[in-house]
From TrEMBL:
Residue span(s) of domain DUF427: 16-108, 142-232
Listed name of the protein: DUF427 domain-containing protein
One Pfam match: NTP_transf_9
InterPro entries: DUF427, DUF427_sf
Length: 268
């Protein structure tokens, strides 16, 4: 029998509040952060800390094998409506009692999320995740289709729980003549908004293979304007040794069990 833990509900010590249509629709110092294997963490709010007067009950429902039946509500503020943007497990199944009667919101259906007075983006922050951006003297060589596209002895190496190690290089150490900026942008709750470039090597375009945080959030200033390549799409050599297999985890529960952790390896 598997002893894997699939759900964990933690009381979050931070005040979390949510805005929609100019109104604060949830504001709580007693939020539960729910961790579910294979999923990003989710904030759940106690009933007393949400604006139920702005909720419109829906006949929509969904089923979850770990939590039970979810009931839904829409948000209505003036003329603005966000359909089925709220859900709650009013009678969760055994093992999920901690979120009974709590309410959660689809992240992208509201206007803004805050922890204390700092706006946060993309998804709930995971207290089990750590992000360190460390200046290094390691020799980093990046190769695409046999062509060296970057080489540096002054990288910033980002160690982020659950994410492959990333190597951020000064733009002066990257073949800018091979890069062309694209319109793609993505956001990260721990680093900010990333801009992207494609690389053209041997007349082949490798789309959005490089990114940079031109204005990272204040907690991670070391990567400002540095460039990073998708390790899984290039060959990366660290101090002359080719990087091996990389691993991704979406939830802290994916690496809570020691026997599930993949130890990174390098091969010659």
């Amino acid at each position: 029998m598997s002893n894997k833990k699939n759900l964990q509900a933690d009381l979050n010590p931070r005040r979390v509040h949510v805005k929609f249509g100019g109104e604060t629709i949830a504001d709580s110092k007693n939020v539960i952060t729910l961790h579910e294997r294979g999923h990003l963490p989710v904030y759940y709010f106690p009933e007393s800390d949400v604006r139920k007067d702005l909720f419109v009950e829906s006949d929509h429902s969904t089923e979850c094998g770990l939590k039970g039946t979810a009931s839904y509500w829409s948000i209505k503020v003036g003329d603005r409506v966000a359909e089925n943007a709220i859900w709650s497990y009013q009678n969760p199944i055994a093992g999920s009692e901690a979120i009974k009667g709590y309410y959660s919101f689809y992240w992208d259906q509201v206007d803004a999320w805050f922890e204390e007075e700092e706006e946060i983006f993309v998804h709930a922050r995971d207290p089990y995740k750590r992000v360190d951006a460390l200046r290094s003297s390691r020799h980093i060589l990046v190769v695409i289709d046999g062509v060296t596209v970057a080489e540096s002895n002054r990288p910033v190496i980002v160690f982020e729980t659950g994410v492959p190690v990333r190597y951020y290089l000064p733009k002066e150490d990257v073949r800018q003549d091979l890069l062309s900026e694209t319109t793609l942008q993505t956001s990260c709750p721990y680093k900010g908004t990333a801009s992207y470039w494609s690389a053209t090597v041997n007349e082949k375009i490798h789309e959005n293979i490089v990114w940079s945080y031109l204005n990272p959030i204040p907690e991670i200033p070391n990567i400002k304007e540095y460039l990073s390549f998708y390790n899984e799409r290039v060959e990366t050599y660290i101090d002359g040794v080719k990087e091996g297999e990389i691993s991704w985890y979406r939830s802290a529960l994916d690496f809570f069990n020691a026997n599930e952790i993949k130890i990174p390896t390098v091969t010659a």
